[in-house]
Write a structure and sequence with these properties.
13 strands, eleven-stranded antiparallel beta sheet, 8 helices, alpha+beta
Amino acid sequence: MIQIRRCLHNPLRVTLISTLRKHRPHYTKPRLEEVEKGSCPFCPGNEHLTPPATLVLLKLNNKGYVFSKESKSGVLKEWVVRVFPNKYPALIPNSRLNEAYGYHEVLVESRIHSENEYLASKTNVYLALKTLKKRVSEILKDNRIRHVIIIKNKGAMAGASVSHPHLQIFANTFIPPEIEAEISRFEEFFRENNACPLCYLASSKKELIFFRNNSFLAMAAYAPRVPYEVLILPVKHQSSFLETSDNELRELGEALSEAVFALKKTLGDISYNFWFHTVYDSSLSFYHWHIEILPLTTTWGGYERGSGVYIVDRFPESAASELRKAISSET
């Protein structure tokens, strides 16, 4: 049973009720011998443990890469990146269940089980992002889908049920309340300042930036919900993730990898979540798409949860300085 319920007294709340989710396995902290026995459902050789892939990135011998898909689970063994429906979905593309219509898919970012090893190669992240862009574009061909949000849960505290590097794709028939609220704020700010709030921050609060390449920058959030909250955004104003060129995807892979490694070096191997905030409507040109990374550095109390006001114990400028040093020491 899957249902969507909207809170009657708070427009920023929408609840997805999925009784299928309670059957999820929990492999977040597998014992070494279990990994060696091949228990991870996302590792090569275990493709039969997942539904057939809706998209697979395959490497051709010295001839680049090609996209394909599976009619039967596990048919394509030599994959580089693999996308398939979540076995325990919050949304189902089933027209008989109008309230629950949507897509909930898993994107396995690499054949590599270790996140640190996966992130060490910027090419790995680029290929995952390239596949992600392709799959999101395909899903949006469904006219019933109004928005797609991409998320990552890493670590037990972040809600991950499998430790293998993977993203999740949620495609909804509605625009999530957080995105709607951001759209309204971006439009208001642009109307008042003739600039978007993220362009303004990037140019006026440069002390918050701790990494930058030609296409993307990573910065400590100006008003963080937790210490060391990070934003990754395009250097040039861009409203949609789908607008990124192939070269920009490579540089996004570098920015994402550097930001996560900086957090790990500064804070240790912590749990974290990140998500893409993007729009897909060309009329919303005032919006600036971005990735928000939330390291679980603190536990919210009743005040934060009940008011939406967050108390942090560190200035983001100090956090940016520490993250900058972490990247410099690696270099």
